Amino acid sequence: MSDEPVRKDSEIRRPNSSMGCGSKDDKASLASSQTMSLSPQPHQPSAPGSKEVWKKGGRMFSILLAVHLALLACTLVSSGAFERIAVHDYDVFFLLTVMMLIVIIWIIFYLISTSRCPDAILCKDSHAGPVWLRGGLILFAIFSLVMDVFKIGYYSSFYSCLSAIKIMYPIVQAIFVVVQTYFLWISAKDCVHVHLNVTRCGLMLTLTTNLAVWMSAVTDESVHKAHSKLKKNTTEELFRWLLKVGMRSGSTEACNCNSQICQIFKNGYFWLYPFNIEYSLFASAMVYVMWKNVGRFIDHHSHHIQRLKFRLFRRTFFVGIVLGLIILVSGLGVLIVYEVQVNSSTEPSKKGQALTMYYIFNIVCLGLMSLVCIGGSVIYRFDKRDMDRHKNPTRTLDVALLMGAALGQYAISYYSIVAIVASTPRDAISALNLTYALLMIAQHTFQNIFIIEGLHRQPPKEDHKRSSHQKELYGLTFVNVSAVSLRVPDSGSVSALSTGTEGTIPSDLVRSLTAPKKINWRRKLLREISMFLLLCNIILWIMPAFGARPHFDNDTELNFYGDSMWPAIVDICLPFGIFYRMHAVASLLEVCIMS
């Protein structure tokens, strides 16, 4: 039987915790219960549900609240995307505006209540909200604010024929982004112990609001992309099925965007939609971790706070960074050529050349990433670090998001494989498309294995202690190795050798000095692999997020599934694939720093 930690991570419901900071008697009883838990006691079966009662109460209610709000928002957003349904876009904007205002009020209440109550936050989750994740959130928040400015300028160009809610929506969204970003920056690690039920419901409302804003942004972007792709080859009757983004249903002619400034605002905020989409998903993930940590007590004996230093450019050969930058720059060039030849040119030959170039680049990139992930997984098999088996809601969410978001790209790839294999005739582009789909499945699978292996490894927390201890032994070795060996008793008893450095024999000394070099070689390779995969995932996120989508330009899938079914499949699945890339970037950065 392995020794259990003295005190495990547990979620304990404090008496009257939902009614404020709690009385003195509550605090005394809590302190006495914690003191008794530290003393050795015989194992007694706890009352059933005594530690899980909070999950069955406030947690279940907050989940039901989030489910109902998410379904309502999804219904309105999807209904507002079609003109023949009597749900207008300003109905969607009204719902989102009300939800964001409620969340802003709740965040202000949370910040005030936790600052006034000294026992509101008894501990913090060191794994939640790492600095690189919060930094990425701020970066996406800045671009989201710029998008809101463009939206305000666009709607203000013809405010006389628009509903007032359309101008209010980007203003409220900008305030929401600022308040939420500040809230997540300072509170992402909190384990709250006051107002438990209100906090759970507020966090779930915040999560649902971010998902609703994400659904609205994805729908608007999909409608805009479909409008741009089909405008060259279809009649206006088809577009009456689509939402005129930013226009009221009955006033399209009166609200035409004719000025140059209006066109700049319109094109600008559509180009910034990917950043707003990623911001909503990043915020949703961080809010979910906060929700999991409500009422949680952290055992600091088993939950070590790791002060990981940001040393990406130390102990590295720059091979992974250089190769990754080459892939990144090459991908940007391919994206520019693809946009010019496919979206701006009507010649079929140029379109075929652009598709061929796109598929060749992605095949090379995905092939290299697959091989590198396999190599990294093999290196992990020889890694001597222990597996981290402690409770970690952040890591659990990371793994779930990686596996879940990959399903979107899996679906697109399998649909493409079926269409290519069943279609005739087959040309060179179809062969490249088939190879691309197969490699996409393989790369997602191998990369998930590599990332999950890295996230479950213990960080090199003992390097500093080991290095200082080895420096002393290293000095003793060069002074007189025999002097160290003279300290070993002649009896050779194990008890004498277990006293510390005085029982260190020369062979163990040499082994302790040479072993870290082998470990450092492995860690350097893992860091190189992580940096290479990180840069590759960035370009594979940029390309589909900013217009390079061969799924709409390749006629094989369109002819096989039809002009309505295939675009719907891509519109549903592609946002998950785009989110997968950005979430993989954050996870790989964590793996790189922990290596």
UniProtKB/TrEMBL annotation:
* Keywords noted in UniProt: Cell membrane, Hydrogen ion transport, Ion channel, Ion transport, Membrane, Transmembrane, Transmembrane helix, Transport
- Principal location class: membrane
* Regions crossing the membrane: 60-80, 92-112, 132-155, 167-186, 198-217, 270-291, 312-338, 358-380, 400-422, 434-456, 525-546, 566-589
Give residue spans, biased composition: Polar residues: 30-41
The record ties this protein, via Pfam families, to: Otopetrin (PF03189)
Q: Domain of life, per the record?
A: Eukaryota
List the membrane topology term(s): Multi-pass membrane protein
Composition bias of kind Basic and acidic residues appears in: 1-14
Region of interest (Disordered), residue spans: 1-53
Name of protein: Otopetrin 2
Q: Which gene encodes it?
A: OTOP2
